[in-house]
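Good morning C.,

I know you're traveling, so I'll keep this short. The sequence:
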Amino acid sequence: MTDTTAEHHRLASSVDDDSAWRRWGPYMAARQWGTVREDYSADGNAWEHFDFDQAHLRAYRWGEDAIAGVCDRFGFANLAVALWNGRDDRLKERPFGLTNPQGNHGEDVKEYYWPLDALPTHAFGEFLYRYPQAAYPYTDLVEANAQRGATDREYELRDTGILAQDRFFDVTVTHAKAHPTDLCMVVRATNHGPEPAPLHLIPQYWFRNTWAWGRDDRVPSITVGDDHADHTEVVSRHAWLGEYRLAVDHPERLGAPTVLWCDNESNAQALWGQPNPSPHPKDSVNRAIVHGQTDACRAPSADGSSGTKVAFWFHTDAVAPGETIEVRVRLTHHSHELTDPFGATFDQTLADRRREADEFYAAVIPAEVSDRERALTRRAFAGLCWNKQVYRYSVREWLQGDPAQPAPPPSRRAQEPWGRNTDWTNLDLADVISMPDDWEYPWFAAWDLAFHCVAFAHIDPAFAKNQLLLMCREWAQHPNGQLPAYEWRFSDVNPPVHAWAALQVYLAEGAWDTEFLVRVITKLLLNSGWWVNRKDEAGNNLFEGGFLGMDNISLFDRSTQVPDGWRLEQSDATSWIAFHTLVMMRISQELARKSPAWDEIATTFFERFLSISQAMERFGTGQVSLWDDEDGFFYDALVSEDGQTERVPVRSLVGLVPLLAVANTQSWVADELPEFSRRRRWLAENRPDLARWILTEKADEGHLQTMSLVDPPRLGRVLRRLFDPEEFLSEHGIRSLSAAYRDGLHVRLVDQDMFLKYLPGESDSGMFGGNSNWRGPIWFPLNCLLIDSLRHRGDGVGGHLTHEFPTGSGHQLTLAEIADQLSDRLVALWAPDDDGRVVSTPRDHGSGPLWDTHPTFSEYFDADTGEGLGASHQTGWTAMVAHLVIERATHQVQHNESRAASPRPGHQDTTPPTSSTPTPTTPTPDPGA
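The tokens, ready to paste straight into the viewer:
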């Protein structure tokens, strides 16, 4: 990565999560209500225990939420804007959406908003929220969706007609840091409707409630600041943050705001009929503005001590069509002496940071990338940055309850379904973590996070490394070695992609940080042991994983519906571990170059891979292979207690995961890893039964070797299905289930009739989590891994050979060329179709200039049409499109250079790129600490 831009210099001084430039950012969730953290119910119903209607009345225990909010990295102080159109029944303070039981396809946000831009240090960021001018149709959305079934489309905000004739405000929030603890913010609202419309802009600043739970009695304060003619000032004091001054400008169009004071306390009277802990609870601002209760808020006292929440109320009865109104805010640590907070330095800071963002992304995104893909890539990175959230959760404290609150019901400590995470009392997090989606999934998911980090490595490798290490720290990783899945059930089993992500990040940064690899692999050795000890029930090198992230990809729920008396030997679970062992081998080889002790670890994982490969051939009493030679595909198999076996004959991603387990021997291994090389030669000479998975090809430089779970004869058969448009190959990527099952698949399995059907888009099954979607749609993570594995295979033994692509077309391409083709299909999801509409844009989104420039990053994609479905802000793993764009451009350049240097087809030097080892700069001390 180049280090010539201003943002690169900031990143160089910000390698640690506590670094000054990382102190403030858009770390607030879009939804804190309905999360497991806030659930203190007896029955574990998080959606109902703390629902949307309570969010404006009830103090959160673990976090805060808002629209485009910013806060410090621990979520103590929070700054965001609330809105009111004069018609809603409440302030618009957070996005609205349906809960999982309310939605006919699971939880779903019913708002339109887009992260527009961001720098990874959050020195600059911009966000757009689309606010309707009519009363928001909360009841209509809930009731209409309740009447729809799993085969119906979701009823969306545009379906209500509320946005007709562009009757909405576009509210853009822009923030820029003059210094690490000096934040300039501008809120601009533009009326796109045909008539004048009223609008209230209410910047709010508040402290998260840390004092009501009986664990820390210290109460921070917000007080009246100095008197100024051109701006309003308040002063906040906090034990950790210190003293900050918040200045709010008096714009000529709007004048001085009305300042409203209250406390971030629950309205216990309204919620539970109990006395309020404060006469001015958190909803006082809402009651004062929306309901006209002028006495709801507190008047500043004589000593200036006024509360823990303050709002600045600007309002106008008419914003003209096309008119933009603006409010400016500046939050500054007291050590910065600002006599004129909204003078020339304010606008200059915004202009400088915007220019620096342009320079940064010009350096990050290769020059060969088209303007359209460049804009897409930048939006993907913006989404990644805005989806970072403060995640606070101590499972031990959550299970115990708080001293000043009622004791949790005993059922909370029971096992599922009422209890939750009772064996994860080690988990204790208070960190900024990359989230899958800011509303549908405002909690980390371990395997999602791995893909986020691969994309992050292009713009912020230090953050990517810290995220991967965080999941392996003792306050996250279970003592038994398991990595936490997600808060609904930390013990669910996710695919072991952590090592792969760590290696990708290491290579993307220039292959210099071996200390990072050591820290990761030592913890992943524990994780490897957990897989062997917990998920290889028979001790035969075949693994059971259950869920493994792919919800309903089989005939039954692989976590909970395995027939009694049978165990499920999973093709994908076993292949995932083979994939994991090869990556662990590669990491060990990298480390062995400097420390010979790792040579033996590399050898260990090398032999583990060969043992797993052999086990997939034949196992158990029945001696039945996971490979079906008649179908030319890998399947799961059920094994009974007395040794009977039955294959699960479903062609899905389950049978494609074996393709992921591939690794090429690096050119330096023979010279630098003597133990590994000696053992490999011994196996080749003495264990031909294992050596069949080591492919060798003579090359100009010696011998090229590739290790693969799928040998050449089987590879061709699997690839024929993979590249078949009637099975897995879609115009938009690789399907998760074969399209051969469009009319359904009936199977008699373990004396039960079972049925499965290909569904290109939203699922009609609630098998897992109320919204299971792996029976056909295109999912980015597996597509990216398949592309990566094809590239590896194309750079290895047989890489010069060609394969028919698509199957039946007569066109012959190498695997490297096919990988490029598949990558192009995924990236083309954001290309315009024949009508000029972006292919992946959900049908509920509008079209035209106000919509077309705002791409969505959906959770998954309809395999027949390419339409984006599921969560709509999944940047998230769908931000991997940025990785694909950059990788495609970089790979093409390297490919051309390699061909120019060596005429031998198919052979490329796969030695990691070298670079001078950067010396991380000591983080700049933050005066606010």
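Safe travels,
E.
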